[in-house]
Amino acid sequence: MLDIRYHGHSTVQLSIEGHSIIIDPFITGNALATTKLADIQVEYILLTHGHGDHILDAVELAKQNDATIIATHELATYMGWQGVKAIGVNLGGSLKLPFGKVKMTHAFHSSGVVLDDKQQIIYMGMPGGFIIELGGKTVYHAGDTGLFGDMKMLGDRHDIDLAFLPIGDHFTMGPEDAVVAAEWVKADYVVPIHYNTFPPIQQDGDAYVAELAEKDIRGKALKPGEALRLP
Q1: Cα distance between residue 154 and residue 73, in whole Å
Q2: DSSP string spanning 87-149?
Q3: pLDDT per residue over 30-55, tens digit each?
């Protein structure tokens, strides 16, 4: 059984057979989060890109769990400078890990750490998503992205059981484009992410899932802290 827990925003935790990974940990800065950071136990932390609402808790979580961060080379290097274990990958590259395999995919967005006090932005490499294979299941986390044609290729090349797609609009694709994305990646099940955390990305997750149903695509709008299990 693959256990999935949605912690809000884009933060997703996947657990199976004694292994657990988390994607884009953003707990302490998310007013909608219901989980305490100290309660999260993981081996690996996957980062799609270098924005604060995706990496805020990565270093603290890595230190408390002795976990390894996986991100693009630039972002992994930046994390490693802060005293944690990190592995750099890049778009199209993959890693074999104790629980299975992780492959980094394209995403169309931006990536950088903003240092407000210095009025400086540190470039953190290209943004991405992840195809994760574990326990006989394939999970696609799109990261922050707009709609792009190669999502069709991902759907053709990978038998995706579960896809996490952003629907917030403003910074990523909105619900209309995310319905098309769901059709293209051909996932058996779709969960919307990256919405309602901030005023500019307010969306109705249930309405999005209803639109998916009209296309005969199964999905669910998980609430922060809610779990899902794939047999």
Answers
A1: 22
A2: EEE-TT-EEEETTEEEEEEE--S--EEEETTTTEEEE----EEEEEEETTEEEEE--S----T
A3: 999 999 999 999 999 999 999 999 99
